[in-house]
Amino acid sequence: MHTLEQRIIDLEIKASFTEDAVDQLNAVIVRQQRQIDALLAELAGLRQQLPEDGTPQPFRSLRDELPPHY
């Protein structure tokens, strides 16, 4: 049977690992929130490029936009 001191040590070890896991998860959440914010900003920019009535522009090929000397 574990002594009280050993049980306390085991709990401290578990608490330390749990704290480390929480810190790692928090870092992931912060990174994901930054990615979400960037994607929302990009989406807002794309929405501004749409015409006012919301209908998408017809597809344009970049070849159609070559300068006349080509």
Which features characterize this protein?
70 residues, mainly alpha, single chain, 1 helix
Provide a descriptive summary of the structure in words.
Helix content is 66%, strand content 0%. By secondary structure, it is mainly alpha-helical. It has a domain at 1-42. The longest helix is centred in the middle third of the chain and has 46 residues, at 4-49. The termini are far apart.
Summarize the structure.
Helices cover 66% and strands 0% of the residues. By secondary structure, it is an all-alpha fold.
The structural class is mainly alpha
Instruction: Write down the Rg.
Output: 28 Å
Percentage of residues in helical conformation: 55-70%
Estimate the mean pLDDT confidence: 88
Distance between the termini: 86 Å
Provide the low-confidence segments as ranges: none
Order of helices and strands: H
Q: How is the secondary structure organized here?
A:
Elements: H1 4-49
